[in-house]
Structures are given as structure tokens and as C-alpha cells.
Structures
1.
Amino acid sequence: MVNLFSMKNYTKSINTKAYKAFTSLLIVLLIVTIFSGTFNIDLVQAQATTYPEYVVQAGDSLYWIAEKFNTTLEAILEVNQRDVNTPLHPGDKIKIPSFPGLQGVLSSEYVGLGTSFVSLSRRSQADLNQLIRLNRITSPSELFIGREILLTDVDQELPTVANTFLEGQTFIELAVKSGQNQWALSQRNLLTNPNYALPQDNYYVPSPNAQNDSLAIPGIGTISIDNLPLRQGDTYVLHVQSPEKIEVKSELVNISPQFTDMGDGQQVAYAGIHALTEPGVYPLTMTFTREDGYVYRFDQLVVIISGNYATDRPLNVDPETINSENVRAEDALFKELVVPITPVQHWSGQFVAPCQDPDNIMSRFGSRRTYNDDPAIYYHTGLDFGYNKGTDVYAPARGTVVGALPDLIVRGNTVVIDHGLGIYSIYMHLEEIHVEEGDIVEPGQLIGIIGTTGRSTGPHLHFEINVQGIPVNPATWLRRAFP
Ligand SMILES: [Zn+2]
């Protein structure tokens, strides 16, 4: 019993001591937990609080930003501690949660001629691995012309132009030509030593009028491509600026547009992409032949994106107007009419709308259509403006009337204007024609009256633009200027 009692007491005393020790330990632990807890939270936040930022542009929404950067609206709201109802203003900076650990201001551009990841990294001064991660790229061959690419912190202060080395040239020549110290230039191009520069690679030199999409090739000149990304049924332009006489050829999806010499070493080719070209990746090849026989060949893959063309409801028209013999004969006449490439640019700037209310569109370019239950699928080669009979039709730009063609079976009363460089505009189904072949027309000048002649289901203007014989989306020409 005593033993038991003392044992009990002993146990009690042990228990009391243990309890006190345990309590102190608990308090210490608690303090440690609180501090280390806070500390841990700080660490986690410090590790995760770098996100690259996107600068909001006019018309952006958080949904659109989330979609563009492959994240969710909820994630964006959370990392930005924003309320969904807070209005978004152009210039606001939004942290992008899909790239934790990266930093800088995000921008995007379309991959231009001669771009590689290394050259992008050199130009933007962004880390190569960061670029690869940002763009989820697994192979350098995925860098197609016209692909949208994300960059961080592009050095906007110092525009640069890409320069390709030719065999036998040295980095020091490039540096001297650009008025740069070769070490400064190699640093700018992320080379530890100028001797590491390679022939046929692109290096960036500061240039006041550089564009992202131009590539300088010493001994050849500068080449650039306009209207990226390229779309089915759209126009693109190739410019070559060369210090000496040079023959240029190019090919994309079996089309080789003709270049026109514009004087001062400038050559330009306007070209179209057929509306039925499958979206995908195609090689763009260009060859430059100098007078001394030197040939430089340029090759790069280009992405052609979908024009998102709709399908019209089946149309019922006069069978005569889809009779294949009639169609063939008229197409042959037209093909001949729009083939010559007048080596002068008659137009300047953006085309004006060919009628009063350019928003009154009945059918867009490129839509797939069928006629009279015929299984053949056509596509719409122009833009249809819907009006009552008797509405005026205007020339959209300066040009020469090369066709004033009454009573065509398919096209009805038709006018064709040559704007130069292979650009033609065409007006079909007119009630009246108010110009004659050879007339020079100015933008806004009356050329005809809307009607419903030829293959037409009601009064409308079919407005078409051909580029070196290919019908292209006229909406592009009404939306932007081709210089
Ligand atoms: Zn039409």
C-alpha cells in the first residue's frame, strides 16, 4: 500500500513535472510554430509572387486574357487580388498565373522572317529558357513565320534589325558597318566572345527604323513580309530593299508572285493566298540572284491560319448562270483582264467603302456555298453589300477602268478597275455602268448603280479584289492601308 501510495505520489509528482515541462515545451513549440509558420508563409509567397505581367489593351477583357494565356479567370482574380466587377482599363498591369517564377512585362508578336529562338532571345534580351517555357515550344522547327510568340521585357528603346552573316564575313565587319564596338555588339547578342558568331546566323544591330519582321542579309539587302499572320484568302506583301540590282523570286503554296521594281533599290510583290488553301504550315522560299551570279536562298516555314469562313444557305439562281460552259468562258475572259501587272502603284493608303453604308453586308468573302442543289461547292470571291436598286457605287481608290462590261451572264453589268501592282477591284450585278474603259477614277467617284443583273438573288453589290489573279478578302483592304 505504502509502496503503492508513494508510487502513486511519485507518479503524481512525475506527472506534475512532466506536465509543466510539457506545457513549457508546448508554449515554446507554439511560439516556434507561429514564427516559423509566418516565416514559411513568407517564403512560399516570396517564391510564388513573381508572375509576368500583361499590360491591358483597349478592348481586352479578363476572360480573353485568361484564354490567351491558358489560365482561368478565377486564377487571374486570385493572384491579382481583384474583384470580377472592378473595371479593367487600358494600361492596367495584370499578373499572369500560368507562368509562376517568371517576371517582366509580357508582349506578343508574330514570328518574322529569319527569326529563331536564339535571335528572339538576342533581340529581346530575354532568357532563352524563359522564352521556350513561355511559348511551350518543344522544337525550334515550331517557330513558323506568322506564329504568335510571347516575349517578356522587349527592349523598346533600342530597335534592332536582324543581320545574317554570309560565308566568309566576320562579326567585326558587321560591327564596323553598324558603327558598333564588336564587344558591345556581341554582348547585345548574348555572345560571350565575338569569335563565337557563326556564318548564316542572325545578329541584331541597333537601327532607328528597324521592324520586327524584317531581315537584313549583307550583300543582298533587307527583306520583310507584311500582313502577318497569313490567313486563307488574304493578301500578303513582300518587300525587298537592295543596294544593287538583284533578281528576286518567291514561292508560297504554289504561287510565285511577280516582283515590281519601284526604283531606289526597292522591289515589291503583292500576293494572295487562295481561300481554299488548307490551314497549316507551308514553306516560303525566296531566291535572290545578284548580277555577279551569286545566289542566296532563303527558306522558312509559314503558318497559314483559318479565315473562319461560314457556309451560306443553299442559293437558287437562274440555271444559265451556273452552266459550266458559260462560267468557263466568262472566267477565261476575266482571267485575262486581271493578269497584267501594271508596274505603278495608283492607289495610296486605305481603300474607301464602295457604297454609302459599308456595314450593310449581305455575304462575306470566303463563305462556302452551293447553287440549285448542285453538289459543287463554290466559295464567295467577294464581299456583298445589300441595298435597294438605284444606290450609288463608288471607286474605293485611284485606278484605271480596264473593264466596263455590260450583260455578262454570270457577273451581270460589271466594272473592273486596275489599281496597279496586280491589284484589281471588281463590281458586279450593276444596274448601270457610269464609266468607260480607260477612265482614270479617284476614290469616292461614282462608277455605277446597284442592281441585280447576272447570277444574283436580289439587288446587291458584289465587290471583289484580285491580287495577281487571286480573289482576296476585300475587308482587309477596307480595314488597313497597304502603303
Ligand atoms: Zn457576291
2.
Amino acid sequence: MAGKVFFSVSMSLDGFIAPGSLGELMGRQWMELQRWAFRQRFFRENLKLGEGGEEGRDNDIARETFERTGANVMGKRMFDAGEQMWPEDAPFHTPVFVVTHEKRKVWERPGGTTFHFVNDGIETALDQAREAAGDRDVRIAGGGATILEYVNAGLIDEFTITLSPVLFGSGIRLFEGVDAGRMALEPVRAESTERVTHLTYAVRER
Ligand SMILES: NC(=O)c1ccc[n+]([C@@H]2O[C@H](COP(=O)([O-])OP(=O)(O)OC[C@H]3O[C@@H](n4cnc5c(N)ncnc54)[C@H](OP(=O)(O)O)[C@@H]3O)[C@@H](O)[C@H]2O)c1
């Protein structure tokens, strides 16, 4: 049976998922947005950030999100930022399909992450990701522009937003330009922890 297509992002309380420029990426706002994740044991292990970390519900959610994912899809700007920051064995450990205009050879990393660069659109990238994922789910990993394309094409089944207690004021707004008229949301789950609130919705056609 085919898995779901989902995304899962950290979002500021005013709706942003990243600062406006890559230069600011490791700045204060980004760290505040992702602070909950950087404390988690699973996240620390996967990104080679060092020993230890919390093992509560936030950690379980990070691990569950990783384990359900059989293939990832991402935009080129997320890839460009990550290429500079990920450890050599990039933290996906699945095939990753990068939607881009740039022609580039397959890039295989140790640990099972293989980046494929797809030049003919989001549907082709998703078809390839579904094939690679088998029974597991396909994660649209980011960033905002790519997630929005999938949302507006009606290709997302479910999503989780982790609301972080931070305000950005400006940056990359997750739902800027969404085709709200075609999309209805059904609450699936809401889980609050000490640090953040994880909100999961199923997407239905209106
Ligand atoms: N808060 C979170 O949880 C979270 C999660 C993931 C990412 N992020 C952040 O999101 C930011 C990146 O997001 P973004 O919205 O700027 O960009 P993005 O979605 O990562 O990438 C957009 C780029 O992908 C390529 N692309 C997208 N659709 C395409 C198509 N149909 N055909 C061909 N190429 C296509 C284009 O690049 P080319 O024309 O150059 O190929 C486009 O400029 C990063 O700062 C990242 O850290 C945040």
C-alpha cells in the first residue's frame, strides 16, 4: 500500500519557517525556532551534534517523523543551505529528490542518503519519491516555496507544524500564496510539550 505524502516543519508563532536570507540562517531567530529540536537526543545523534539530549515526547516525535519517511523531496535552496551544514553522512538516510533547474549528477553520501536532482517538476520528483519509499511515507522536507507548490497542487495528505514560541516579524512565510479555496483541514492531533506545540492536520479537498 502506498504511504502518505506529508510535511513537518517548525514554524514561528507568526507563521514563518525561516529568516529571509541564508546569511541569517544560523542566526538568533533560526536557533530560537529550532531550539526545541537541538535539545533532542535523536536530532543530536542524527546531525552528529554530540552526546546526550532529552528523551521525552519531543524526541519521540522527531524519531517517529524520521522513521515513517521512506524518501524525501526538497527544494534547491534548502539543499544549498544544508549542503554547507549537514555532516558528511547527511541526516536523511533515504533517497532525496531535489527539485531544481540545475543539472547535477546523483550525489551519494555515506549512511544511505542519495541526492537525485530532478529537473522536470514536482510531480516527477514525487513519483520517483513514492517509488523509492515503497510502503513508507514521502516527506516534503522543505523549504517554503517547494512545500507551497505541493500544497497548491493538492498533493499533500497530511502535515505537522511544530509551533515554536518565537516571533520573526519577517522571513519565509509558510502559507504565503496558498490556494486557500481548495484546501480544507481536519485536525488529527495536537500535542503540547514544555517547549512547543505539535499540530497535525489531514488535508481534504473543499
Ligand atoms: N522551519 C523548518 O522546519 C524548515 C524546514 C525546511 C526548510 N526550511 C528553510 O526553508 C528555506 C528554503 O526555502 P525556500 O522557500 O527559500 O526554498 P526551497 O523551497 O528550498 O527551494 C526553492 C528552489 O527550488 C527550486 N525549485 C522549486 N520548485 C521547482 C520546480 N517546480 N522546478 C524547478 N526547480 C524548482 C528552485 O531553485 P533553482 O531554480 O535554483 O533550481 C527554487 O528557487 C531554508 O532557509 C531552510 O532552512 C525550514
